[in-house]
């Protein structure tokens, strides 16, 4: 059955066959399509450990929270799709008001186009000649909107050489990327950034489309020094954008910032400005809000309950992902080894957080107090237990996770339960890393 989005475009549903290559799935799923398998009303208790699980209710809640926040603060949202690389989740973000999808590599752009997405920002420079020609060909579709970034005159000239002699329906939108000392990419001074803008403006195959940047690499917490560095950087972005007002054409331009940690500061700096540059769209690219987490983003997100205090629960984000792992060994009184490691769960922004234990998947769980994960190997986690903690071999441990950006990439097919109290699997999310 054909499905269509709110614009009348056909939605391409990935419904290919499941196989034993999809780790964690029940053996009986092999050979079935996603649709056929879900029609059998599978339960989580059928799945194998280790396992990454999503909550449909929590995902829907987070989608609503962020859609409401951006609407109230006057921002368009182009969430970073590289967080999940899951077109099914991208579609849900679009359907709840997102303006488009942000991606990080040309290969990711190609995946999005193959699934029919029409509004894409590449939050990076595009210097691969083959990828540039692919984008140029895609621009023959009048419904396709695309932009990328450049942080040097050399980048602009590489793009021009790659497009020399290529038939292109319209110029490629390019935003000037401003960086900061100690940051990642981006022109390091306003003067350099203005030079990049001038070079783009003189190009016949590129269009000066705005100013872009990423503030998340300038701080890693919410101490005063880090927040000051982020504010200073955002103010420099705004200064650059305002200084380019006479260089822009009369079409829409964008000013874009905002990871998932400091978008409140983006609003603080950009929000009070009363349209300093005509036709400006203010774009946030936050992506991790969709699943939130129990670690890094719980500690830094502006919309976490710990930061908002007595705020209405409807306006705070909820963790929508968890890990499940089984006890393999109890070699010491206060040590258990789990069947999940670095190839299953994220560890770069904090180790998994033990939450509950149960005799098996789907069984009643009890809090696992006083426990912590002290280390991870490729396929093992070291679970340190409180004295006299009972935890039988074969038991299942629920783990809170930190950093969704390095959780999804370890899984091809992720089960979705209705909520954390339910054993019924209502979806399977495919990823394309």
Automatic annotation (TrEMBL):
Belongs to the DSD1 family. The lineage of its organism: Bacteria, Bacillati, Actinomycetota, Actinomycetes, Micrococcales. It comes from Cryobacterium flavum. The keyword Lyase applies. It comes from the Bacteria. Residues 320-418 form the D-serine dehydratase-like domain. It holds the Pfam family Ala_racemase_N. InterPro entries: Ala_racemase_N, D-amino_acid_metab_enzyme, D-ser_dehydrat-like_dom, D-ser_dehydrat-like_sf, PLP-binding_barrel. GO terms for molecular function: lyase activity. Keywords: Lyase. This is D-serine deaminase, pyridoxal phosphate-dependent. The keyword Lyase applies.
